[in-house]
Amino acid sequence: MVIRLGQKAPDFSLPDTERKTRSLSEFAKQGTVVLAFFPFAFSGVCDKEMCTFRDDFGALRESGAQLVGVSVDSSYSLKAFAQTYNLQFPLLSDFNKKVTRLYGVLQDPWVGLGYKGVAKRSVFVIDRKGALRHRWVTDVPSEEPPYAEVAKVVEKLAG
Questions:
Q1: Could you point out which of 35, 56, 97, 112 has its C-alpha 20 to 30 Å from the C-alpha of 123?
Q2: Which helix (H) or strand (E) is 27 found in, with range?
Q3: What is the pLDDT of residues 117-138, one digit of tens each?
Q4: Residues ≥6 apart with Cβ < 8 Å to 148
Q5: CATH (domain of 146)
Q6: Is 79 within the bounds of a domain?
Q7: Active site residues
Q8: Which pTM was predicted?
Q9: The domain containing residue 76 runs over which residues?
């Protein structure tokens, strides 16, 4: 399934690092949501991506946005990942790959490494009404998101 700009983003519920169930609708009630899917915790580019978002998180939050990371890692792995890199935003475990599949970003197999079913690196910006306002997806695991572009979309929604 490909979610198109302007369409309502599919709601979901996933466990966070404390195994508390969190939903997209919960986050959207508070403002714009930046939903960042990443393949694996503790894996080079993913570490750099989440740390870049961490470092830019203040600017996103000032624009009224919330950052939420999603991967197929377990809640336990994501908790260690968040603690290691001092990530102060929710990380959600899509261990069963339901949401990754729902958003059309399941990569299976993954770049010839034999892994079955990981999230493609992707970023979705969803407004407080639940509509998709920005979509970026890559099939290249080493490619990072266009952070400045994401920030511009968030700022525009705040204005």
A1: 112
A2: helix 24-28
A3: 889 999 999 999 999 999 999 9
A4: none
A5: 3.40.30.10
A6: yes
A7: 46
A8: 0.93
A9: 13-158
